């Protein structure tokens, strides 16, 4: 669920920075492909892919924010939610790595469809299990992680192939707007539905709506053409890059791990803390609405104004401020302080995320050889994030096994929230470099 949100935001960051994934091989693009449409226009296949991604984002936004809340209400256990999230992350990373061979050598589109179908099966399982879902958090977490892995791996690769340098920015912009729009509106609608019905009826309604939306996304995906497979998947190609000191991937990987440590806890705990502080799903929906709205405006402004030559300084300000905005929670963990913290995070997050994402994908598209290994490098990037998320989740489980007081949660947020500062340190050499590009 949150993985989808992160990926959509990455598309938006790319659009704001004018990021180009150059070096796409010519085997999937005819020489005159760009001549068949107006410069910068999106063809029908790109529009269809946007439609699938948009529906996937809507379905995730409707229910994803509230799944941890639902599990907590039925179990009253912070440990149980931690185990659910841990297995979700772990299986997502494993799926990325294993499915990479299938996506590269065989059928990308079936991987995309399997991801959509498994997401639908996940919510169908929650509907079927009802209040007993908390007894099956491990298989549910594995199922959701597998769905995310199949979908986002295929989506990232198909996106790379289906666009060209002159229309990627437009695609990224539409993907970011669709995802952000879903993040602003859908959680608010879900919160309103949940509080409008007694018991868990509202949850059943939003989970059912998500299931229907996933089904629609699966149907639309069949109008996407089968993509040509090419090349042989090298299982350990990405990891071999980490052994070479003359390549930047070792530092970049460490920075991704640091980023993942924060994400692993923040992606689910903040929303859960908002619900626990208010005992009201509608206020959680309002929280998501305001923070997403501020985030959208901030990403647009920073992405438009940020120059490559000041990436290092901007990222340092970003990582410092997203850590400092946690401090108000030491006064009180109530809705007002959580909202200040959430808005502050949304305001300064682009200063960290835009340089981070741009620099990593600049590196993937730096040469023709690395572009050919795009599947392997996309997997490597995800493995770094997953490793960080698992470290963050391990810290969460350790703390929750001893105490679940608001003060302990705040210290945990601060502890993992400062980790992006380490990510900034590891990215110092890579930031500011203009990656070499090649024409497809």
TrEMBL record:
Domain of life: Bacteria
Ranges that cross the membrane: 47-72, 78-99, 111-130, 136-159, 171-193, 205-224, 252-278, 284-302, 314-331, 337-357, 378-399, 411-428
Gene Ontology terms for molecular function: transmembrane transporter activity
A Pfam match: MFS_1
Principal subcellular localisation of the protein: membrane
A GO cellular component entry from the record: plasma membrane
Topology in the lipid bilayer: Multi-pass membrane protein
InterPro entries linked: MFS, MFS_trans_sf, Sugar_transport-like
Swiss-Prot/TrEMBL keywords: Membrane, Transmembrane, Transmembrane helix
Protein name: MFS transporter
The gene coding this protein: yqgE
Organism: Paenibacillus abyssi
Protein localization: Cell membrane
């Amino acid at each position: 669920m949150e993985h989808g949100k992160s990926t959509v935001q990455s598309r938006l960051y790319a659009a704001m920075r004018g990021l180009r994934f150059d070096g796409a091989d010519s085997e999937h693009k005819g020489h005159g492909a760009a001549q068949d449409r107006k410069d910068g226009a999106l063809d029908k296949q790109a529009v269809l892919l946007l439609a699938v991604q948009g529906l996937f984002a809507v379905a995730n936004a409707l229910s994803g924010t509230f799944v941890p809340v639902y599990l907590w209400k039925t179990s009253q256990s912070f440990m149980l939610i931690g185990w659910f999230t841990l297995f979700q992350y772990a299986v997502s990373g494993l799926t990325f790595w294993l499915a990479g061979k299938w996506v590269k050598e065989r059928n990308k589109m079936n991987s995309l469809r399997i991801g959509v179908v498994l997401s639908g099966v996940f919510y169908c399982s929650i509907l079927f299990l009802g209040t007993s879902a908390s007894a099956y958090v491990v298989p549910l977490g594995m199922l959701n992680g597998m769905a995310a892995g199949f979908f986002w791996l295929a989506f990232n690769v198909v996106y790379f192939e289906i666009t060209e340098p002159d229309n990627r920015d437009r695609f990224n912009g539409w993907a970011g707007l669709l995802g952000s729009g879903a993040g602003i509106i859908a959680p608010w609608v879900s919160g309103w539905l949940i509080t409008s019905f007694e018991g868990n009826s509202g949850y059943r309604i939003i989970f059912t709506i998500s299931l229907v939306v996933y089904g629609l996304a699966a149907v639309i995906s069949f109008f996407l053409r089968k993509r040509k497979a090419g090349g042989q998947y090298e299982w350990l190609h990405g990891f071999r890059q980490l052994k070479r000191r003359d390549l930047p991937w070792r530092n970049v990987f460490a920075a991704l791990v640091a980023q993942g440590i924060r994400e692993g806890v923040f992606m689910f705990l903040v929303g859960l803390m908002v619900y626990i502080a208010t005992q009201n799903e509608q206020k959680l929906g309002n929280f998501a609405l305001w923070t997403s709205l501020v985030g959208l405006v901030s990403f647009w402004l920073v992405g438009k104004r940020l120059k490559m030559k000041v990436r290092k300084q901007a990222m340092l300000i970003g990582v410092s401020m997203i850590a400092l905005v946690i401090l108000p929670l030491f006064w009180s963990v109530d809705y007002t302080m959580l909202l200040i913290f959430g808005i502050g995070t949304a305001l300064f997050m682009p200063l960290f995320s835009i340089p981070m994402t741009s620099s990593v994908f600049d590196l993937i598209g730096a040469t023709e050889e690395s572009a050919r290994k795009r599947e392997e490098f996309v997997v490597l990037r995800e493995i770094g994030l997953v490793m960080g998320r698992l470290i963050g989740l391990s810290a969460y489980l350790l703390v929750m096994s001893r105490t679940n007081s608001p003060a302990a949660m705040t210290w945990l947020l601060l502890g993992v929230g400062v980790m992006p500062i380490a990510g900034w340190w590891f990215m110092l050499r890579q930031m500011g470099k203009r990656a070499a590009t090649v024409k497809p």
